[in-house]
């Protein structure tokens, strides 16, 4: 089940990225902006549906109850984000008939991304049990999530200003377009690094340490065994310096005038 969830996650992430990239044309001339909006909404809708399905396949993982980001399990935080995002897409479709709905729709996108960002931070601080989990890769994805969330907030602010303060429309569009260009380029960089680069899994490092530790223990055990064998051999073959048995008559050592059961030393 986890493999299916990962596959759905990858597909969802791809649709999200291309939806995000196309949506940056919303401030272009009307025809291009309309096409970009329809296309991005379709991509977002597919992405959110795939994400919702993937959330049902996530394994349970204990949350960090004492931390501010541990208000729910990682998968439940994803469910909240996916559900809010789906509602935001449906509201955005209604903006073709009721333009005023663009304001709550844009803020729903921003809140959805906020929950997503929190969940990814939660995952970084409280990693789930995955065979190939990499904290370095998760850090890259967290930065990508931060950039996309920032872009969603900028879009929500720009949409609100344009709707309620038409006099600042031109300045807002210019500034929002500049932010979109800069943040979008950075987001693309981190998305590409997360998607295409290979990262060393954390369990590889732990495995190497465990292997080193086990070898060390084996070496220590061998050393202790050899020392023990040496002590046994010394007990089987006592030293001629101290012996409770008197030397034979033909021994070259001179006999002591003491009793036969006495301890013999060099005299």
UniProtKB/TrEMBL annotation:
Domain of life where this protein originates: Bacteria
Any coiled-coil regions, as ranges: none
Transmembrane segments annotated in the record for this chain: 12-35, 41-59, 80-98, 104-121, 141-165, 171-192
Keyword Transmembrane helix appears in the UniProt entry: yes
Alphabetical UniProt keywords: Membrane, Transmembrane, Transmembrane helix
UniProt KW Cell membrane keyword: no
Protein name, entry field: Transmembrane protein
Organism whose genome encodes this protein: Legionella maceachernii
């Amino acid at each position: 089940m986890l493999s299916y969830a990962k596959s759905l996650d990858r597909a969802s992430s791809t649709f999200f990225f291309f939806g995000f990239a196309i949506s940056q044309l919303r401030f272009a001339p009307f025809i291009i902006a309309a096409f970009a909006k329809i296309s991005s909404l379709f991509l977002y809708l597919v992405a959110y549906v795939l994400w919702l399905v993937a959330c049902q396949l996530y394994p349970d993982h204990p949350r960090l109850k004492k931390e501010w980001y541990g208000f729910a399990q990682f998968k439940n935080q994803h469910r909240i984000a996916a559900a809010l995002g789906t509602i935001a897409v449906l509201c955005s479709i209604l903006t073709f008939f009721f333009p005023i709905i663009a304001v709550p729709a844009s803020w729903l996108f921003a809140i959805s991304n906020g929950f997503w960002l929190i969940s990814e931070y939660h995952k970084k601080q409280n990693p789930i049990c995955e065979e190939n989990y990499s904290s370095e890769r998760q850090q890259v994805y967290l930065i990508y999530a931060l950039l996309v969330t920032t872009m969603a907030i900028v879009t929500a602010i720009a949409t609100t200003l344009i709707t309620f303060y038409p006099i600042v429309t031109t300045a807002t569009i210019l500034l929002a377009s500049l932010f979109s260009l800069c943040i979008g380029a950075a987001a693309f960089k981190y998305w590409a690094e997360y998607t295409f680069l290979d990262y060393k899994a954390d369990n590889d490092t732990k495995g190497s340490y465990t292997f080193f530790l086990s070898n060390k223990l084996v070496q220590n055990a061998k050393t202790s065994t050899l020392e023990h064998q040496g002590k046994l051999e010394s007990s089987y073959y006592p030293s001629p310096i101290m012996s409770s048995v008197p030397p034979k008559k033909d021994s070259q050592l001179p006999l002591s005038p003491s009793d036969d059961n006495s301890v013999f030393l060099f005299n």
